[in-house]
Here is the input.
Amino acid sequence: MRKLFIAAATYLATGLASGLFYREFTKLNGFPEGTATQLGFVHTHLLALGTLVMLIVLALEKTMGLSADRRFTWFFWTYNAGVALTAAMMTWHGILTVLGQPSSAAIAGVAGLGHMLVTAGFVLLFLALGSAVRRHSVVEAAETTA
Here is the structure.
C-alpha cells in the first residue's frame, strides 16, 4: 500500500508541476494562448491516469487485497512505466510544438508504446481484481453458510 501512496503522491506533484511548466513555458516563449499543444494535456493525464488511478487502486488494495495476486506487481510496474513514458513523450512533443520545431515519427511511436503499456497494465489490474473478487465471493459464501 505504501508504494501505491507514494506513486499517487508523486503523480500529484508531477501533474501539478507540469501544469505550472505549461503555463510558464508557453508564456516565456510567446506561444499564442488557446493554441493546441500536447504540453497542455500532460497535467490532466498525470492527475487522472496517475493520481486518481493510484488512489482508486489503493482503496481496492485496502478492501480486497489485490497484491495477493502476482499479477498485481506486474500491473504496478507496467502501468507506471506506460504512464511515465506517455507523459514524457507528450511533454517532449509539446515542447517542440511551442518552440516551433518539427516532431518526428519516433516520438509518436514511443508514445504509442507508452499507451500499449498502460493498456497492458489495465488488463493485468482487471485480472488481479477478478481474482480478488472471486476470492472474496468464496469467503463471503463460507461465512453465510457457517
